[in-house]
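Schema walk-through. Below, the input block comes first and the output block second. Nothing else is stored per chain. Lengths vary across the set, and this one has 367 residues.
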Amino acid sequence: MKILSAINASRCVLTLLKPNKTSIIIRITQQRNLMSKQLVYDQFGDPLHVVKFRESEVPALGPTDVLVRMLAAPVNPADINTIQGKYPVKVSLPSIPGNEGVGSVVDIGKNVKGISKSSKVILNRSLMGTWRDYAVLPEESLLVVPDDLGNVEAATISVNPCTAYRMLMDFVPLQAGDVVIQNGGNSACGQYVIQICKAWGVKTVNIVRDRPDIAKLKEYLQNLGATYVLTEEELRSTQIFKDGLKKPLLALNCVGGKSSSQLFRYLNDKGVMVTYGGMSREPVIVPTSAFIFKDMKCEGFWMTAWNHAAPATEKDKMIKDIISLMVSKQVKAPIHKMIKFDNFEEALKNAVSPQGFTGCKFILDFC
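--- output ---
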């Protein structure tokens, strides 16, 4: 008797059929029993209270689906705000959190063409739920990245480095020798701004809050490529612009309040301040004279909105440029801490604390 079938599943069921007296047909039915560990919330609120751990059977692959084993996924402010119900984009409940991540392809549907088994992939869509160890995802939501791209860099590529890249590209035509000033210079996005500017020959003035280990932080940012690192107090009395440093035409604001007002003091005429965050939860305060006498502009930037509106060719170019900078070691991941997935509560606890996102990125480790 010959069984003309390849068994590729983890469990099989054999059914014996006897259509006549002389033959027996063996039908082999493949059943997937792979279980996915995942985080889920079925109501909005404090992540420490509403996010729960569960195990769920991984569904069978459709013809254009891809089975991905997650390697790493960051915990971003947007993830926390989404769980809290405070983010502009609302999700259907129950939901698996996580907008970013990198994984390895385990299996592919029969019609998948652009992805192979063992490929390293990232998500090119938000709200796909990366806080789980296995996921079945549509082919079009994934992008293959080079194997030599680090897991942390790959896992965090679609939010912070893309935000930094777009703000540096889209508002002022920067050239080598120009100057960019930013607050939140030690934030994840701020660290990418420093490194991209360094690669492009653009100087940066980076404002950070004072702290006991300020000398260590300054040294770290300068090693990334920061031209100047000043505390908010030092900025008020700095002489660097009187000593020959060109005034910036671009200011990047993720703090708001008095910190954003200070940026205007040093912005050049016709300069642009781009706001992409509000960590102080205070409004952006603009001096009237900045508008009337200096013709300065205020703009806002949200990476999610850009992704929805931009053509695919622009997205592809951006990702390729950033990957090139990362693979060539001109840009590396921000300060981060890897946390084993089973210890996810530690990541959430740090993320929701007042100091949670000040310069350290928490990344769930599935390896």
